[in-house]
Amino acid sequence: MALGQQLRVLHALDVARTQLYHFMATAIAGMGFFTDAYDFFAISLVMDLISYLYYEEQIDRGVKATINGIALCGAVPGQLVFGWLGDKMGRKRIYGVTLLLMVVTSLASGLYFGTNEASNVVAVLCFFRFWLGFGIGGDYPLSATIMSEYANKRRRGAFIAAVFAMQGFGNLAAGIVAVVVSASFLRTNPRRNANFVWRIVLMLGAVPAILTYYWRMKMPETARYTALVAKDARKAASDMSSVLHVEISPEDEAVRQDQYGLFSPQFLRYHGTHLLATSACWLAVDITFYSLNLYMKDIFVDVGLIDPPGKNHLFMRMTVTTLLHTGIALCGTLPGYFFTVAFVDRIGRVRIQLLGFTMMSVLTAILAATYAYWKRQETIQRKMGFAVLYGLTNFFANFGPNTTTFIVPAEIFPARMRATCHGIAGAFGKIGAIIGVFGFMSNMEEHGVVPRKLWALFSSNLVGLVFTFLLPDSKGKSLEEMAGETEEQQQQQDAAVVAAADHINLVPI
Amino acid sequence: MDGGDAPAAGGGKVACAAWIRRREDKSAAAPARVFAAYGRAGAAGSPAALEVLGFDAKECSLSPSPLARAVIGDGGAGDAPRGIAVHPAGDELVCATAKGCRLFKLIFDEFTVRIIPRDAPLLESVGPQKCLAFSTDGAKFAIGGEDGHLRIFHWPSIKVLLDEPKAHKSFRDMDISLDSEFLVSTSIDGSARIWKIDEGAPLVNLTRSSDEKIECCRFSRDGMKPFLFCTVAKGPKVVTVVWNISDWERIGYKRLLGKPISTLSVSLDGKYLALGSHDGDFCAVDVKKMEVSHWSKKVHLGSPVTSIEFCPSERVVISTSHQWGAELTKLNVPADWKEWQVWLVLLALFLASAVLFYVFFERSDTFWNFPMGRHQPAKPWNVLKESPPVPEDQTPW
Fold it and tell me: Where is the protein localized (chain A) (predicted)?
C-alpha cells in the first residue's frame, strides 16, 4: 500500500491547500540548489585555514584562485555530460547519479590524510573539487525540472520564490556552518584542529546532498507534463513536428518560412543581437558576482574590516570573516531574490536588469573611488560603511541581472532554439564566473590593487548595462508591448493547463 | 516468442492480459517486482478465471503455471473476462465482464500471491464495458461501456466523479492523461472528445474532417512531450496523428504500420508506441523519431490484435487476440542504458581527468609549493605562466 499512498500524495499536492506536503516538496525541490550554493561558496571561507596549514599564511595567488575556482571549471563539462546522459536514460535516474557523485566528492575532498605536503593535499583537494563541480553542473538543470514537477498549481509563484531562496540559504548555511565549526575549536590547539575544521566544513556539503537523495527516493514518481509547467510545450511540439508530416495550410505556409536553423543568416538577422546581448550580460554579471563573493574576505582584510593573517588568533579571525559573510548573505543577497520575485512581473525584466546594472556600476564606482577613505578609518565601526555598500552591491546583483539574465533568454528566443540559446548564454555566464575568480588572482595586499579591481568590475557592469539596451528594445518596441506580447502568447499557448502560471524562472549559481 | 497459452494450466483462452508492478513496502529504492495478470475465458469443465503469473526478467518469460487463480463471478457464461485494469500501486485490479466489473485485491508475500475478490456493488452493475483505465496517480478510475456510458470514479472510495450515460454511441478507446487532468474517449462513429476529469465535463471535440474516423487514442507518458496520439482512418488509409494537448491542435501525422489498426498502446516511460493491426501484426514505434523500430508479423495470424501491454521493466510486450490468446514478445529495440553504464562513463572520465591532473602536477612542481615571497610583484606574464589546470573535456557548448 506504500506505493498507493505515495501516488495519492501527488494528487493531494495539486488539490489541497498548502500543507505539510508543500513544505516537504519545497525542501526537496530546493535542496538541490541549496547544496549547489553551499558547495560553491564554502571553499572561500576555509581558504584561510588551508593557507595557514600548508603555506604559512603566504599562499600563492595562483593556488588560491585554483582552489576557489576549480569547481566552476568542473561545472561546465558536468552540465554537458549529464545533459547528454539524461537524454539517453531519462533525467530522473541521472538525478540520483549526480547526487551520489556530489556526496562522494564532498567527502573525498576532506579525506586525504596521506602526507602534509602542501602540493599533495591541495592537488587532491582540487581534483575532487573539480568533480564536485562536475556533479553540481549536472544537478542544477535537473533540480529545475524537479522543481517544476512539484509545484502546486494554485501557488506556483510562491513555491518558485521559496525554491529561489534556497540558493541564498545555501550561501547562508555555508557561513553558519563555518562559524559554528571554527568557534567550537576556538580554545584548543589551533594548528592541529585547523586540519579538521576545513575538512569538516567541506565534507558537510555531503549532508544536504544525502538528504536530497533520500527524500527524492521517497517521493512518488512525478506524473506531470513538465513541458507544460516549464513552458516548453512549443519546443516539444516543434521537435515532434520535425519527425512528422505536417499538413500545410495557408496559415502554416507563412509560419514555415520561419523554419531557420541556429547557424543561418535569418537567425543572425533576427536574433543575433539578442544572443550577443544575453550572453554578454550574463558574462558581465557573473564576473562581478563571483569575484565579489569569493574574494570578499581578501578585500575586507585589505580595507581593514578583518585583521590580516598572523596578527590575531586564527579562529577569531575566521569567526569574524564568516560572520561578515553571513551578514551580507542575510541582508544583501537573500532579499535581492525576494524583491525580484515580488516585482519581476510588475516592473519587467529588462527594467530590473537596467536598475541592477546601474546600481552595481554606481556602487562599485563608489567603493573604488572612496577605497582610500575607508582604509584610513581608525575603527571597525567606521569601516562598516564599506561592508554596507558591499552588501548593497550583492542586493542589486540579485534584484537585477543575476536573476534576469536567467529569465530573459528563456523568453525571447524562438521555442525551437530556446534551450540551445539559453545554454549558450549560460555557458558565457560560467565563463564570466571563471574570469571573475581568476581575474582577481593577484596580491590583494599591494597598494592600489583592490581599487583597480573594483574599477574593472565597474567597467564590467557598464558593459552589461550597455548590452542590456540590446534586449527586446532593439526593435523599437516598448517594454510593455514586448512583455505584453510575450505573456499573451504564453498564456494563449498554455491556457488549457497552466493558466495561472507565473513567468518566473530560476536563478543559476 | 514463448509463454502464452499453456494447455497445462487448463481453462480457456486468454482473453485479456495486463502487467502488475509491485514495489515492496520496506524500502522504496528496491526494484519493483513484475507479474502478469491473465483473464481466461471459461471452457468445458472450467469456469472463467483470473490468474497471476510470475515474470522472469532474465529469461523474459512468464511462469508456466499461475501463482494464483481466482474464479470470476459464479462461473456463468456472462462472467467471461473482457478487459483488465491494474491499479498503479499493484494491489488491486478490475476485470470487466459482460455483466459488469469485478474488483480483486492482490496480496503478495515473499513467495506466494493471493487474489481475493472484493465487493464493489457500484462496479458490478454497470453492464458490459469496452474500456477500463486507471490514472497514473491511482486516484481515478474510468470505464467506457458498450452502450456509450462514461463513468469516472474516485479511487479508492469508488465515488462517482462523472456519470455521462450518453457520452458516445459506443466506446472505441479511452485513456487518461499523465497528469490526470484529461480523459480522451473515442466512439465507434469516429468522433473523439476530451473530458476535464476534475470538473466532470467535456472540454473539446477533436477536430476531424467528415471522412476521418478517430479510432485509438493514447496520451503521451513522457513528461517532456505533452501530446495525444490517435490513429485516424481516412478511407482505407490509417495514419497516426499527434495532437498538442496545450491547445488541442494537430501537430502532424505519419503512416507507420500501413494497415488497418486495431489497437494502440504506449510504454510506461513514454518512449515507445505499439500499434496492432487487424491481421495479427504489431509494431513498436520510437516516439522520438516516430519510426517503426520493431515489427512482429503474424503474431496473431489472421486475427485482430485486441490489446498490447508494455512490461514496466523490460522491453517486452504481451499481445492478445480472441483467436490466439496471449503472446509474449521481446521487442527488438536498442537496449536502454543501465545504471552501471552511466557509472562506467563517469569512471572513465574520472580516470582521464586524474591522469590529466597528475601530468599537470608533475610538470608544475613549483606551482603548489611555498610562495616566492610576500612582495612578489604582480606581472602579467606571471599570471600566464601560472595558469590553472584546464582539463581537456572542458568545452563550453
Answer: Membrane
Question: What's the count of helices (H) and strands (E) in chain B, helices before strands?
Answer: 4, 28
The percentage of chain B sitting over the pLDDT mark of 70, rounded to a whole number, equals 84
- The owner of cell 537585477 is A400
What's the rounded Cα separation, in Å, for the pair B217 and B176? Answer: 10
Q: Looking at the domain covering B138-251, what would its CATH class be? A: mainly beta
Q: Quote the radius of gyration of chain A (alpha carbons, Å).
A: 23
Chains A & B: contacts with CB separation below 8 Å: 222
Chain B residues touching residue A233 (CB < 8 angstroms):
226, 244, 246
Pick from B309, B306, B310: nearest CA to B320: B306
Domain boundaries, chain B: 1-127, 138-251, 256-350
A10-248+262-484: which CATH topology? Growth Hormone; Chain: A; (1.20.1250)
A8/A503: higher pLDDT: A8
Q: Residue B142: pLDDT above 70?
A: yes
Instruction: Quote the longest CA-to-CA distance of chain A.
Output: 81
Contact B184, B174 (CB under 8 A): yes
Question: Which chain A residues have a beta carbon less than 8 Å from that of B342?
Answer: 85, 89, 93-94, 97
**How large is the angle between the packed helices A61-89 and A418-439, nearest 10 degrees?**
160
Asked if B368 is an interface residue toward chain A (Cβ–Cβ < 8 A), one would say: yes
pLDDT of A50 over the 90 cut: no
CB–CB of B345 and A81 under 8 A?
yes
- A346 contacts: CB under 8 Å, gap ≥ 6: none
Please tell me the distance from the alpha carbon of residue B236 to that of residue B215, in angstroms, as a whole number: 13
The Cα B224–Cα B320 span in angstroms is 30
pLDDT surpassing 80 at residue A446: no
Residue B50: beta bridge partners? B39, B70
Summarize pLDDT for A87-127 with one digit per residue, the tens.
666 656 677 888 888 898 888 988 876 665 667 788 888 88
Q: B384 and chain A: CB distance < 8 Å anywhere?
A: no
List the single residue in B25, B336, B394 with the smallest CB-CB distance to A73.
B394
Write out the three cell numbers for B328.
509474449
* pLDDT at residue A145, as a whole number: 64
Task: Check the CA dihedral A420-A485-A493-A255 and report its sign.
Answer: negative
- Does the pLDDT of residue A351 top 50, yes or no? yes
* Least trusted range by pLDDT, from A187-201, A209-223, A453-467: A209-223
| Helices (H) then strands (E): counts for chain A | 24, 0
Q: How far apart are CA A155 and CA B123, in angstroms?
A: 36
- Contact present, B93 and B84 (Cβ < 8 Å): yes
Distance CA A141, CA A214 (A): 19
Concatenated DSSP letters for B33-69?
A: EEEEEEEEPPBTTB--EEEEEEEETTTTEE-SS-SEE
**Is residue B33 within 8 angstroms of chain A, CB to CB?**
no
Is the CB of residue A119 less than 8 Å away from at least one CB of chain B?
Answer: yes
Cβ distance of B365 and A127 shorter than 8 Å: no
Quote the CA–CA distance of A403 and B346 in Å, as a whole number. Answer: 31
Burial of A310 (C-beta count, 10 Å sphere; 0-12/13-18/19+)? exposed
Residues of A in contact with B181 (CB under 8 A): 497
**Cβ-defined contact of A60 to B386 (cutoff 8 Å):** yes
Residues B51, B84: Cα–Cα separation, whole Å: 11
B64 inside 8 A of chain A by CB: no
Q: Do B226 and A81 touch (CB under 8 A)?
A: no
Return the residue matching grid coordinates 578585500.
A299
Q: What is the mean pLDDT of residues B326-349?
A: 80
- B302 within 8 A of B315, measured Cβ to Cβ: no
Which residue stretches of A113-155 are H helix?
Answer: 118-150
Rounded to an integer, what distance in angstroms lies between the CA atom of residue A58 and that of residue A64? 10
